[in-house]
Amino acid sequence: MRIYETVFVMKPDLAADVQNGHVEFYKENITKNGGEIIAVVPWGKLTLAYKVKGCSEGVYTLIQFKADTSYVMELEKRYKYNEDIIRYAVVMIDEKKFKLKPRKDPVKRERRVEKRPDGQEASDTEFADEEDEDSLAMEDIFPAEEK
Hints:
Elements: E1 2-10, H1 16-32, E2 36-52, E3 55-67, H2 71-80, E4 85-92, E5 114-115, E6 121-122, H3 124-128, H4 138-141
Antiparallel strand pairs: 1-3, 1-4, 2-3, 5-6
């Protein structure tokens, strides 16, 4: 048996119990066909790079499992005929390099705070209208035409 990793994307408008039902269905299907579940990682609702089947968001789920090579085609067929699955991928993992790494949440950046000359904090909008002394005005770059 080899180690595989599958990620599938469900429609975002599905109820939570339906989403969980799909995840459980695929877990059971893998185990019934002689596979072994290693990990199930729900990634949640994420924005797609482009619309797929009219959806701009999707609910992602990752399943890592051990199975025979003949089962992968069966799993892909199940994904293909499920109307709630909008995308899927199944890949084989190199067993020597395999390590399950937890997914990190995106790093939240702190808002830049600048000080005004009087020592108080300034909001971002206060500096938006100011220009540097070295900057050029649009009139300097594109002179107005005379009629």
